[in-house]
Amino acid sequence: MEGKRLHDAGLRLVAGEAEAARARFAAAPVPPSVVLHEGTRVTAVWPLEQAVPVSPARLLLTRLAALHGGDRELADPDHAWLALPGSTVTSLFPRFVVRAEAGQPAQRVAIEAIGRWLGA
After folding, report:
1. Which sign does the torsion angle of CA 89, 73, 54, 99 carry?
2. 3-state DSSP call for residue 100?
3. Fewer Cβ within 10 Å of end Cβ, the chain: N or C?
4. Is residue 98 included in any domain, yes or no?
5. Would you say residue 48 has pLDDT above 90?
């Protein structure tokens, strides 16, 4: 499936993958503010307290993806995309409504805390 987004391929999560991802996120030293279930992946979101340049962001996103076995497409801020909670993924059958499953959406994270966690 290289080069294809999972939504485009119409794939779904394999049994147990979503639960394993949720467990990894829950055990993270810096918990995500939001966990999204997008039908083909479970995505954690760490909104930052302030904007950061693209280069360090790309490095941290790559490390996060590697640590969590995540989607490396999300490591490129120029091409990353997230589905919004409540939106419908029409490429899946049956259609899937994206939902926010956990977290504290108002929580903002200091980039330094993520950097310490990831050894950057």
Report:
1. positive
2. strand
3. N
4. yes
5. yes
- 37: domain range? 6-118
HSE toward the beta carbon, residue 98, CA cutoff 13 A: 19
Question: Is residue 35, in this structure, part of any structural domain at all?
Answer: yes
Q: Is residue 51 part of a domain?
A: yes
Distance in angstroms (rounded) separating the CA atoms of residues 44 and 72: 13
pLDDT tens digit sequence for 57-105: 888 888 988 888 787 777 887 777 888 899 998 888 889 999 998 888 8
- Helix, strand, or coil (residue 103): strand
Read off the CATH number of the domain in which 71 is found.
Answer: 3.30.70.1790
Q: Is residue 34 part of a domain?
A: yes
Q: What are the Cα distances from residue 81, in Å, to 2, 48, 105? A: 17, 17, 18
Q: Are 81 and 40 in contact (CB under 8 A)?
A: no
Environment class of residue 113 by beta-carbon count within 10 Å: exposed (0-12), middle (13-18) or buried (19+)?
Answer: middle
